[in-house]
Hints:
This protein is 29% helix and 16% strand. By secondary structure, it is α/β, with parallel strands linked by helices. It has a single domain, classed as 4-Layer Sandwich (Purple Acid Phosphatase, chain A, domain 2), CATH 3.60.21. Strand 7 and strand 8 form a beta hairpin. The longest helix has 18 residues. It starts with a strand and ends with a strand. The N terminus is likely disordered.
Amino acid sequence: MLVGDDGGARPLDSAIFRVRCSQAVKINPLIKYAPKYENPDNKTFRRTSSLVQRRIVAVGDLHGDLESALSVLRMAHVIDSDGKWAGGSNTVLVQTGNVIDHGPDTKELLMLFPRLVQEANRAGGRVIQLLGESEVMNMGGDLRYVKERPDAFLSPESRATTFSSTGYLGSRLSNLPTVHRIGTTVFVHGGIQLKRANTNIQATNKLAKSELDAYVRQPTLTANYPMLLGNDGLLRYSSHSMHPGRLACDSLKRTLYAMGATRMVVGRVLQNDGKITPQCGGLLVAINTGISRYIRGKQAALEILPGGQLRALYPSGPIDFA
């Protein structure tokens, strides 16, 4: 597999990707030119085979709170006291969507992650930001949860342009992956139902992007965009994490088997106790602890160590999962 500069996985199924693979020795000098969003034509694409040997840190919904976001990233040792990348070449950071809404720091957070993407690339690390429901709603003009400062944008029209597919925020958001996989762990904002399970992550992301592009052009009933915004869509499906009984766990097992995966990490569903929550014997890990002070103010991150060991990171210290 090859990986885009924000972690969008793409298969080696064409000559251009095989050429990129053979030219791997030429990639490192180009890292400083890495784009701020996934670009299949960029020369900085690199192999992901080594990513499973790195430390993976996953954080859930951040919801408009820059201070809490920076705090949890410092706690997880992926940024330093100045907010710069500190994960070196041995860390992959995954953010599972819903960076914005509910809190005031919309632009600040949406500009933080592309900067970290570039800083991590220069160091040989990775930052993978996934698309969340909040980002899609803002691109489609659904602002019901927006709580940003009145002076965040010049005008409502200016904001709409900024979040459009040609705006400086929207153009990047429209290219973020919806699903990502590292080794046998799948990351997604909401969840993946069996009928949407696919070993080809590129194909899943491509279909999701086509729906996103259509939704932004014509944000009508969400039922018209089932893969993204349907109740069983990638951004809203939550049966596994909300009702982790035998039937849901059996369904999850079949989904993971169909994807060739062993674990799914999801955000979206709030864990009211503020704890990282493994479910279905560890097949699912729910990581939306309400980091934002405008939700719960409960800071936590998931750490996956080389070899697959899971740890929950809290301000009070790490907790290992059996």
